[in-house]
Amino acid sequence: MQTIKYTFADGTTNEVEVREDIYLIHLELLQQEKRNHWKETRRHTSLYYFTDMGIDFEDKRSESPLDLYIRKENIASIRKAILQLPDKRRELIRKAYFEEMTFRAIAKEKRLSKSAISQRMKTIYKHLRKHLGA
Question: For the segment 64-86, what is each residue's pLDDT rounded down to a tens digit?
């Protein structure tokens, strides 16, 4: 017999004795949950995560006034191009880049497939590149 320790959402814990085969299934499920979490989050670590952990990134670049002006103009052009998108496309941009949602999460929310969201984003990129002359 093995003991499984379970922690409930309210913080209380409970221990249950189970047979060896049930315990092995439990361990496999825990490992699968860890693998799934890692697979979902490994490419989506934002800089906010690092700053929350106390790691700060210092920008050591010294931009010339011309570089600053060009960057501001580029940002203004991108904003203008985004504003010309239809509302649904602007919403996808907002969710993906400003709310940092994954395509999978957006697809689940919209009850679509991940590939459908990916295709829509490709169409948006194509429109933005055309508008920006890239």
Answer: 788 888 888 888 888 888 888 89
pLDDT digits (tens, 9 = 90+) for 27-77: 899 899 988 888 777 766 667 767 777 777 766 667 778 888 888 888 888
Give exposure, 80-116, as e/b (b: 16+ Cβ within 10 Å).
ebbeebeeebeebbebbeeeebbbebbbeeeeeeeee
Q: Are 93 and 124 in contact (CB under 8 A)?
A: yes
Alpha-carbon distance of 85 to 62, in angstroms, equals 34
AA identity, residue 86: P
Q: Where are the alpha helices (DSSP H) in the chain?
A: 20-41, 47-52, 65-83, 87-93, 103-110, 114-132
CA distance 45 to 51: 11
Please name the amino acid found at residue 23: Y
Of the candidates 65, 98, 84, 100, the residue with the CA atom closest to the CA atom of residue 132:
84
